[in-house]
From TrEMBL:
Belongs to the DHHC palmitoyltransferase family. Signal peptide: none annotated. GO terms for molecular function: protein-cysteine S-palmitoyltransferase activity. This is S-acyltransferase. It is an enzyme of class 2 (transferase). It is found in: Membrane. GO terms for cellular component: membrane. It catalyses: L-cysteinyl-[protein] + hexadecanoyl-CoA = S-hexadecanoyl-L-cysteinyl-[protein] + CoA. Pfam families: DHHC (PF01529). Keywords: Acyltransferase, Membrane, Transferase, Transmembrane, Transmembrane helix. The chain crosses the membrane at residues 18-38, 58-79, 160-183, 203-224. It is a multi-pass membrane protein. The lineage of its organism: Eukaryota, Viridiplantae, Chlorophyta, Chloropicophyceae, Chloropicales. The DHHC domain is required for palmitoyltransferase activity.
Length: 289
């Protein structure tokens, strides 16, 4: 029975890994789905249309420029989240209080800071680290394994994951608002450009529906992660936090934000590592032999 269960878990993890490879195409396809109607078929041509008014051209330039800025930042954050190692446990790491050497040491099972050992990795786990069965490794300050980024979200790439959510939300919201006047004009009986191109209308409508769905669902997800950042908590620790009061990692709003986004605020929205981030990783490295 145990062998069969192991086999199912293995199959499940393999399926998730394969699904991850498809996700990158899904994300790129979603960007292209909005790019085509907004930049190629609706707003781009206005820039070169001699019949368009200055007001229309300025409006079209605003939409096209912001689409490229948000799209660029979204893809940058996305690939940073995929390609950055989430943070693994260094070889030779030993907890502050090693129960093997000091069996008298107080070990409170409800304390998240207690020394824990990973039987799969045969290594000690630092505080807030968890084993990911899909990656097959322990991940520092693990949040969750994300199929969209084909990677674990942990200490080193949580900022990129959060910015990916934020920029995808802003891009979907902007695309939805940019397509709104086009549809109100079309369904208002004025016809518009779409009359001549039924294929363009179909793509624009599909993009509009997908943008509404994404902006609504991502809004809830961003609020949830913003609350987690503000409280210095991870998705895995959410239930633990309800039990443990006061939460031992809460250092106040500003410090909690800095732990994820860095101490230099102009870099908070840039998908790059900045000073003051990943402080626990440095501490863990110092404690490793
Ligand atoms: Zn492990
Ligand atoms: Zn993982």
């Amino acid at each position: 029975m145990a062998g069969c269960k192991d086999c199912n878990v293995f199959q499940f993890c393999k399926c998730l890994r394969l699904l991850g490879n498809v996700m990158i195409l899904v994300v790129l396809g979603l960007v292209a789905l909005s790019y085509y109607p907004i930049v190629v078929s609706i707003y781009g041509p206005v820039l070169f249309d001699p019949k368009a008014t200055v007001g229309q051209q300025v409006g079209a330039a605003f939409v096209v420029v912001w689409f490229h800025i948000l799209g660029g930042l979204m893809l940058w954050s996305y690939f940073a989240a995929i390609l950055t190692c989430p943070g693994h446990v260094p070889d030779g790491f030993r907890p502050d209080v090693d129960p093997e050497e000091n069996p008298e040491a107080p070990v409170d099972k409800s304390d998240p800071r207690r020394p824990r050992f990973c039987r799969k990795c045969q290594k000690w786990k630092p505080e807030r680290a968890h084993h990911c069965s899909i990656c097959g490794k322990c991940v520092l300050r693990m949040d969750h394994h994300c199929v969209w980024v084909m990677n674990c979200v942990g200490e080193r790439n949580y900022k990129f994951f959060f910015l990916f959510l934020l920029y995808t939300f802003l891009l979907s919201l902007m695309s939805m608002l940019a397509l709104l006047p086009y549809f109100s004009e079309f369904f208002g009986g004025n016809g518009g450009e779409a009359d001549d191109h039924p294929a363009n209308l179909a793509v624009s409508f599909m993009a509009f529906v997908v943008d509404i769905a994404f902006s609504l669902s991502l809004c809830g997800f961003i609020v949830m992660h913003a609350k987690l950042v503000a409280a210095n908590c991870t998705t895995i620790e959410m239930f633990e936090k309800e039990r443990i009061k006061p939460w031992p990692y809460d250092q106040g709003l500003r410090k909690n934000i800095e732990e994820v986004f860095g101490t230099y605020w102009p870099m908070w929205l840039v998908p790059m590592h900045s000073e003051g981030q990943c402080t626990s990783e440095e501490r863990i490295r110092l404690r490793s032999v």
